[in-house]
Amino acid sequence: MQRREFIKLSTLAMGATLAFNEVLTAQDKPMEIETGVLKIDPVLISPETDTMTVVWMTESASSGWVEYGIDGKLDQKAFSSSDGLVDANKSLHSVILKNLKPGTKYSYRVVTKEIQKFEPYKVTFGKTIITKENQFTTLSPDKKKYSFVMLNDLHGRWNLIDHNLNFVKDINYDFVVFNGDIIQDPQSDVAVIGFLQACSSFAGSIPIVYARGNHETRGGYARNIKDYLRPEGKYYYSFTHGPASFLVMDGGEDKADDHWAYSGLVDFDNYRTEQMYWLTSEVKKTEVKDAKVKIFVSHIPLYANGDANTCKDGVVKWGTMLDDLGIDLYLAGHTHRPDYVEANSVGNAAPVAIGGAPSMERCTVTVVDVSETKLNVKIILAGAEMVSKEIKIN
Length: 394
Description:
- There is one protein chain.
- By secondary structure, the chain is an alpha+beta fold.
- It folds into two domains: 5-137, Immunoglobulin-like; 146-392, Metallo-dependent phosphatases (Purple Acid Phosphatase, chain A, domain 2).
- The chain is 16% helix and 36% strand.
- It has seven helices and 22 strands.
- The strands form three sheets. Strands 1, 2, 3, 4, 5, 6, 7, 8, 9 and 10 form a ten-stranded mixed β-sheet that branches.
- Helix 5 (268-282) runs parallel beside helix 7 (312-325).
């Protein structure tokens, strides 16, 4: 049976907050602490106009929640529960903040209570950790112009995150797209924890948009990374920000399902068909079809120059719908060959920006400036501007 998750929201009046603190012992009384005590400091995932997902990890089993609000207040509380049970006795936590206001700045902090012993009729709590307050801004359909950046194909080289973002430190970007193969063949939680720890320099206030790559489908822990990177749903999804609608899709693996490397344990042909049916409905939604700008994100490119590996099955199953929708820009990685494919050059109706490879010499950060009338796309290779293109919006 599919697990149904929901978030319970409540408003914390001042009196209620005091009462909460009063029942704690002197030893357990919450104290604000420096960041770094948690195994993973709070990171923001999957931004939308009315929701934001907060993910964090403690060193030991605990329960946790998010306190948040506008105008500098922390007067609302959200926690995660499923099947009538509040999520607890675990170290990985994710909470979806719902019913947020578009284009609004929120303050938030995370509270966790260590669970030392979990008995049927008594839970023994340990220390309480309260993180420092941070802020984020929800996406907005009314924003006229903004920028975002894309990183891809880090393959576990976490130093490349700050290395690449340093090249765009003077740009005010609204989110960071991690377009696949960020993690290299995950065998345990170490890889995904390392990734989110490396994002702590920015992701407490600037959210992550994640698209899965083929190397993230490999390894014994591949089936678990969703709990960290897409706890709220599928690897394929859409969202809007300003004049742009984004379609994020998942091409799966880069070889046939019956390839020996997969040991008969993948089903990506059917998975891409599943996405085809989803896309059939998605392109009919007003916020998608009527968006002035339409951007498609996938790790494996649908189109690329030369002999680069592409998602041919995705072209067959999704291509006509995307052409009819009027995609303005495709964003991809995978090939390890940074490139810009001009529209109508290899069967593509729109340009394709492809990011680089996992080395200091060939890594890239792609910058996209969005407005109602044009897109400006820059691919920065090892600190130098490799591509600078303007895409006019009809």
